[in-house]
Write a sequence for this structure.
């Protein structure tokens, strides 16, 4: 026996937390002993199997090799934000997840070293763009999230939202799901609304980098989708119209009604107001995209940053043969003017589930607002300190926050 793995992640892991592997070797007493670790995209059987990097790991004082891979992996994970993609209610996504593997060699002895290729079994790992709290990560169990044809009704979507919450007819809801079973995926997404029950194709096997799916199940998503696999099981299409008051969503196998996941319930409410609606859309802790609407008073402040230079003014008039000035000659001249907008907005009165949504958004690095044309504009939340309010302490709860547009406006030059 040489190197063995003492600890490694089981199932998919949130990549922005630690991804720890612990090695032990019977050769550790040899001179100049070290482990050489090669990190690969995919696994050896994948067509995209590619060497990403190599690292050297020395034994710690207790004689173990401790490797935290997450810093090496997180650079290969992004997100999947495609509001123009209305072709599918459920589809594979790649940016939010990354399948990778590693290989271990031992080196010891002389300066050139004696290499020993180690076979330590399956070293294929799955990481996704999640970031859990300290306590949440301690309790993380990927089997609680892996949906397949035999998973229990407690199996969770990759989201930290309340499982029942309010949305408007103009809101999108994109819930990610882990489907890491190669042979036995769910059969369909099962939708129930006032208009009937509906099925949509979810026979997505895990292949190569494809082990996450995105469920676009918001009222606006189901209204605009062109997915031909969305069919009425009872009632008739469309699944959502102006009179719809709720959407229930779960994963099913045949026969219809055999659920293999938890149920998400979206209650559709009217958040009309005399004030401008600020419709936020943000990425939560486990990579899903969720809406929050602020519908009370909002104010916009614009800050201009000017860069000026001073030039000589006046000119020679060849006709009158004099040096003179005009009232419109310019001394101080602006050569660059940048405008930034900061918006302060206030929510309606909230229950604790809605508070959880707002605090989740305040902790998110990716937030958009939806304009009146339905386009999404990147913003940066500038409220960096907040109180987590509770109804037992605050009978009426609302929040005021500020944000800036992530892109500044340029102006003409003087």
């Amino acid at each position: 026996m040489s190197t063995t793995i003492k600890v490694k992640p089981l199932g998919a892991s949130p990549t922005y937390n630690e991804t720890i592997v612990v090695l032990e070797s019977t050769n550790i007493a040899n001179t100049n002993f070290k482990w050489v670790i090669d990190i690969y995209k995919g696994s050896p059987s994948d067509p995209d199997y590619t060497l990403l990097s190599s690292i050297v790991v020395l034994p710690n004082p207790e004689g173990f090799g401790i490797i935290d891979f997450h810093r090496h992996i997180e650079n290969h994970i992004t997100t999947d934000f495609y509001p123009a993609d209305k072709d599918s209610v459920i589809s594979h996504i790649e940016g939010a997840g990354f399948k990778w593997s590693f290989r271990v060699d031992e080196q010891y002895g002389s300066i050139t070293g004696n290499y020993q290729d180690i076979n330590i079994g399956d070293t294929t790992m799955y990481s996704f763009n999640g970031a859990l709290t300290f306590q949440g990560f301690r309790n993380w169990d990927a089997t609680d999230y892996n949906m397949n044809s035999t998973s229990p009704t407690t199996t969770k979507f990759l989201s930290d939202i309340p499982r029942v919450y309010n949305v408007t007819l103009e809101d999108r809801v994109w819930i990610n799901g882990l489907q890491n079973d190669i042979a036995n995926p769910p059969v369909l997404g099962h939708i129930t609304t006032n208009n009937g029950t509906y099925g949509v194709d979810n026979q997505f096997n895990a292949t190569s980098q494809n082990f996450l799916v995105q469920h676009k199940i918001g009222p606006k998503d189901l209204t605009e989708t062109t997915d031909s696999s969305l069919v009425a099981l009872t009632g008739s299409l469309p699944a959502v119209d102006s009179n719809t008051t709720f959407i229930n969503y779960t994963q099913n196998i045949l026969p219809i009604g055999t659920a293999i996941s938890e149920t998400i319930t979206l209650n559709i409410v009217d958040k009309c107001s005399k004030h401008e609606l600020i419709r936020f859309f943000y990425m939560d802790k486990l990579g899903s995209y969720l809406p929050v609407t602020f519908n009370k008073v909002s104010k916009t402040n614009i800050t201009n940053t000017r860069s000026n230079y001073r030039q000589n003014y006046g000119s020679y008039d060849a006709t009158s043969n004099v040096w003179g000035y005009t009232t419109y000659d310019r001394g101080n001249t602006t050569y660059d003017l940048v405008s930034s907008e900061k918006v302060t907005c206030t929510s309606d009165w909230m229950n604790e589930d809605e508070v959880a949504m707002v605090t989740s958004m305040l902790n998110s690095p990716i937030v958009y607002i939806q304009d009146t044309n339905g386009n999404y504009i990147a913003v940066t939340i500038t409220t960096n300190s907040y109180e987590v309010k509770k109804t037992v302490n605050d009978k009426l709860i609302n929040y005021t926050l500020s944000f800036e547009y992530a892109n500044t406006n340029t102006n003409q030059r003087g």
About this structure: Helices lie at 70-73, 134-138, 219-224, 352-362. DSSP finds four helices and 29 strands in the chain. The mean pLDDT is 90.
